[in-house]
Amino acid sequence: METSLHRDAGFWVMIAIGLALLVAGPLVWDLFQIMQITQYVVLSVYVLSLSYIWGFGGILSFGQAAFFGLGAYTFSVASINMGETTFPFLLAFGLPALFGAALGYFMFYGKLSDVYMGVVTMVVTLIFWKLINHTAGPEYAIGDARLGGFNGIPSVPVLNVPGKPEAWLDPGQMFQVFMAILVILYIVLRTLIASDFGRVSLGIRENETRAALLGYDVRRHKVIVFAIGAGIAGMAGGMWATYQTFVDPNVFSLEMSAKALIWTMAGGVGTLAGPIIAVVVLQYLSLKLGEMHVLNNNFILGGIMMVLVLLVPKGGLPTLRDALVALKARTPAALQR
Amino acid sequence: MTLSRRSFLQASAALTTTLAAPSILHAKTDTIRIGGLHDLSGAIDSSGVPMDKALRYAVAELNAAGGLLGREVEAVTYDPQSNMSLYSQYATQLALKDKVDVVFGGITSASRETIRPIFHRYKTLYFYNCLYEGGVCDRNEFTLGTTPAQTIAQLVPHVMGLWGKKVYIVAADYNYGHISAAWVKRYVEENGGELVETEFFPLDTTQFGSSISKIQGAKPDIVYSLLVGTAHLGFYRQWAASGMKGEIPIASSSFGGAGTENVMLTPEEGNGMVVATGYFPSVDNAANASFKAGIKTFYGNDAPILGEISEVTYESVKMWAQAVSETGATERMGIIQELEKGKSYDMPAGKVAIDPDTHHTIRDVYIAELKDQEMVIQKTFNAVQPSDTQMVCNLSKDPDSNKQFEISL
Amino acid sequence: MSEPTPILTTEKLVMQFGGVTAVDHVDFSLNPGELRCLLGPNGAGKSTFFKCLTGQLKPTSGTIRLNGQDITGWETHAIVNLGVGIKTQVPNLFDGLSAYENIRMAARRRHLKPMAKERAEEMLEKCGITHLARREVGLLAHGQRQLVELATVLAPAPALVLLDEPAAGMTGAERDRLADLVLETARRAAVVVVEHDMAFIRRIAKFTTVFNRGAIFREAMIGDIMTDRAVQEIYLGKQADVAA
Amino acid sequence: MDYTVIVILEILRAISWLVILAAGLAIIFGMMKVINFAHGEFLMLGGYITIMSHNAGVPLWISIAVLAPLTVGLFGILVERLVIRHLYGRIIDSLLATWGLSLLMIGGVTMVFGNTVQGVSTPLGSIAIGAYQVPGYNLLLIVVAALLMAAIWALLRYTSAGLIARATMQNPDMAETLGVRTSWVYMATFGLGSAVTGLAGGLLAPLTGVAPSMGVNFVAQSFITVITGGASMIAGTLSAGTLLGTISQGVTFATGPVWGDAALLLAALVLLRVLPQGITGRIFRKSL
Question: Which GO biological-process labels does this protein carry (chain D) (predicted)?
Answer without folding.
Answer: amino acid transport
